[in-house]
Amino acid sequence: METLREAAARLQRGEVTSAALVDGALDAIEAREGELHSFLTLLDDARAAAEDVQKRRPKDAGPLYGIPYAAKDNIVTRGVRTTAASRILEGYLPPYSATAVERLDAEGALLLGKTNLDEFAMGSSTEWSAYGPSRNPVDPSRVPGGSSGGSAVAVAAGFCHYALGSETGGSVRQPAAFCGCVGLKPSYGRVSRYGLIAFASSLDQIGTLTQDVGDAAVVLGAIAGRDPRDQTSLDAPVPDYLQEISRGAKGLRFGVPPEYLAEGVAPAVRDEVLRAADLLQAQGLERREVRLPHTSYALDAYYGIAPAEASSNLARFDGMRYGPRAQEEDLIEAYRRSRGEGFGPEVKRRILLGTFVLSAGYYDTYYLRAQKLRTLLRAEFAAAFSEVDVLLTPTTPTTAFAFGANTADPLAMYMADALTIPANLAGLCAISLPGRPADGLPVGLQLMAAPLREDVLLRAAGALEEAVR
Q1: Catalytic residues
Q2: φ, ψ for residue 430 (rounded to 5)?
Q3: Does the reported pTM lie above 0.90?
Q4: How many domains does the chain have?
């Protein structure tokens, strides 16, 4: 599929209309959506909206004007069903839109629909959606990754030009790696979380899935920036990221931490990262040695913190206001049955785990210790970024796995995010872009940079993308 920048150029030249772009997207969806199941909701009025936008197109329209996109179904959209792929939110129609969606609306972007995900963004394969799994467009017998699996599928299959996803421990980058598209996780606080249904509030961040690095720069530029409705959003200047990419990456310093190439990383994935390192050096980047010894503890820290925050955040979903409600006269029993029937198995597992680590007698042993590990990780990354500008690693230890391979083993499923979780814990910006496939399956190359250094990250990513093509 063409990039959104290519589509925007054709719109500007009058070679195509927004309605034609929507028609093309709907044709592609009709051809493969039944097999791939990337969407939970498609907007009935998408074509009419495209025609209206086309009539109002200004001469100075930006690159997102009239371009169809999709949003993960845990990002609220006013008047459009938003379920977080959970039965407990079935039929919920939000009265407002997320800030990221409002900012795209202001750019004239066209929302095509809401994409599938692991329930409440808790998963690494989209197998935990209450409405059925999405499938990998490269090989439908394999998972697309998660939790933003539907968004990755929609972009990789050419159903839309770009999509919004969300990240708590790798939920944009991991499915991007499995499906062969570009997934960008901004720094914590770079993009407003207002309107993102919370999983773990100190980790969550809205990100982008796109055809290439340049498109990621365009979309990030539109949704980034301070939002007074989100007190964790940062009041920091938003550069022209596309212009930054054009500067090139020559002279930047990068490191390949050996801890990210250790046991558990498939040989083909490791080889592709080392090849990418050689390509970056050939592009004029300087390679330096770095170590991140606490990386091996990141998964433990994450599963001490994220479920604890989830157990608190999900307490608000009680089946009393929307979604299915158990018909019980006893209030406590109504709560118990509504939540028991409304939440799926993975969500229940994480609520129970989070409640346990926060309970008396275990708080210091698990939650507090996890926070201390998080502090060590942040300090370790800060030291590394005093020596290098970006870090190059695999995005995932393996390529996409088969359906059902890890559902009976939660630890094996959680390991799929082992290499992406550290960036969330430290609040870094990070991106996954496709490398050379292994056995016909996409391999994700991950770059990480210091908080709020998306400009540097995208410069390096642009150089790497050009080199691996």
Answers
A1: 72, 147, 171
A2: -155, 155
A3: yes
A4: 1
